[in-house]
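Researcher: Checking consistency across runs. Here is UPF0301 protein Sfri_2850 again:
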Amino acid sequence: MDSLKDHFLIAMPSLDDTFFERSVIYICEHDQKGAMGLMVNRPIGVEVEDLLEQMELYLSPEFVFSLDSQVLIGGPVAPERGFVLHTPQQHWVNSTEISEDTMLTSSRDILASIGSDKSPENFVVALGYSGWSKDQLEQEIADNTWLTIKATPELLFNVEPEQMWLMATQQLGFDIWQMSSQVGHA
């Protein structure tokens, strides 16, 4: 299977795992060893501004815009770890380029910049991540658990989390509710 890096996984309507039900996961890494991604449509009920205060990263005097974005549950693995998906900027301590439109940073310095003129233009903050071991994701796709689409910055950064699953399914080009949950091979 080709790499699904910079793709969205869209949970099938028949997925009965309450944690991943109606989830959209942005795949940050996918290779022969496994996959890592962030769920991008499940708010935890905390605003980014409140998270920064809890971390004692108070808004700087250069604060230039309002923070009304929500912190998301990235997945069940390492829920104490924070991740920021953002538009490209190269000056963070621990950043990885995922695509020409998206980077992943897991260092505290990016959080300290949020809300200032040094902040990335667009960002998503998540706690925890979703991970798959070797061949696990491929098997879940074969089992009809996930559908995939190429990620777009518009969907990642400009759609409210609560609307993302519906918007992502509309990108598929067919009515997802018409799909069978049965898997088979002719």
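Researcher: Does this match what you'd expect to see?
Model: One thing to look at in this run: Residues 7-178 form a domain with the VC0467-like fold (CATH 3.40.1740.10).
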